[in-house]
Design goal:
Layout: H1 3-13, E1 17-21, E2 41-43, H2 48-60, E3 64-70, H3 71-77, H4 79-87, E4 94-98, H5 116-121, E5 127-129, H6 134-146, E6 151-154, E7 174-177, E8 182-186, H7 191-202, E9 208-212, E10 215-217, H8 221-230, E11 233-237, H9 246-256, E12 263-266, H10 278-285, H11 289-301
Parallel strand pairs: 1-2, 1-3, 3-4, 4-6, 5-6, 8-9, 8-11, 11-12
Antiparallel strand pairs: 5-10, 7-9
């Protein structure tokens, strides 16, 4: 099953679901041809604000709109509408962002959604998710779409490199492995590259943990606390600015529980990435499996002062 098949199945079974897009039909090619649901498919054109306002109106009338747009424009161009029309009213509008983070590889800064996690998780009641790949996303989406809360999903149709647990619960992470030397906390499209880094480090005799932080809000606080307590170094890996993303989430959890630990950030810091082919972007920015393993190993080899 793929994304289009899942959303078709959900919409055919439940008339509350309305499918909307701002001229982004890459995952929705056949929806307008489906006589059972074509009357609940709306393409508003390149008008993200209008789409969100319309979706909010439909939600007020008992519908559950699933909206689609390029992540950068959905989360920034339409942010005020999401905050005001959807967030304040706490409406079950489901936001799907295409090509977030490094997936916008060939585009410049205007098209890079690398602050999306930060700004949307700041809206009260908004749920935020970043699946590791298509299999992970398809496991997660039925619960997300059936939730009464507004939500944002970083769409990801990459092929899986591991078999994911079918036991998904909103607010829970997926623990792939536990490790005492290094534990990687990662979300989204960087997951397979961290899997590769884990394999490289384990061949050098290290104990390496890996957690798929698929649900970023609500977040699995216990997994974060356990990782920090039981691993020499915890590394937050994300194609996002350092501020407001996973690294900040971890800091918030530790402060809330009055805990400290050796937590490091492998992020974009405070810069946009240099566009190019995805393989070149990952290599240049230091996010290939090899580069991640080298950066992680350096943390163990260099003395650090634990906060």
């Amino acid at each position: 099953m793929n994304y289009e098949q899942l959303i078709t199945e959900m919409a055919e079974r439940d008339e509350r679901f309305v499918i909307m897009t701002a001229e982004n039909r890459a995952l929705l090619r056949n929806i307008p041809k489906n006589d059972k649901i074509s009357n609940r498919f709306f393409d508003t054109g390149i008008t993200e604000q209008t789409m969100i306002g319309t979706a909010a109106g439909l939600a007020l009338r008992g519908r559950t709109p699933i909206v689609h747009a390029l992540a950068a424009f959905l989360t920034m161009r339409a942010f005020e509408f999401i905050r005001t029309d959807v967030g304040i009213a706490n409406l079950p509008v489901k936001l799907t962002g295409f090509i977030p983070g490094f997936l916008s590889d060939g585009n410049g800064a205007t098209h890079q959604a690398i602050e999306d996690i930060s700004i949307l998780r700041g809206i009260p009641g908004m749920e935020v998710f970043a699946p590791a790949d298509e299999e992970d996303m398809l496991i997660m989406l039925p619960q997300i779409w059936n939730s009464k809360a507004p939500s944002y999903v970083r769409a990801n149709i990459a092929k899986p490199v591991v078999s994911h647990s079918k036991d998904f619960t909103i607010g829970k992470a997926e623990v792939i492995a536990k490790g005492s030397d290094i534990t990687f906390l990662v979300y989204g499209m960087l997951f397979p590259h961290v899997v590769e880094a884990k394999s490289i480090l384990e061949k050098q005799g290290l104990s390496v943990g890996l957690v798929n932080m698929r649900s970023l809000k609500p977040v699995d606080e216990q997994v974060i606390l356990d990782s920090v307590a039981n691993s020499e170094v915890v590394i937050a890996v994300e194609d996002h600015f350092k501020i407001g993303g996973l690294y900040t989430i971890i800091a918030e959890v530790l402060l809330k529980h009055q805990k400290t630990g050796n937590v490091r950030s492998f992020s974009l810091g405070e810069k946009w990435f240099k566009p190019g082919r995805l393989t070149d972007v990952l290599n240049y920015e230091g996010f290939t499996g090899t580069k991640l393993s080298e950066r992680a190993l350096a943390l163990l080899e260099t003395p650090v002062i634990k906060s």
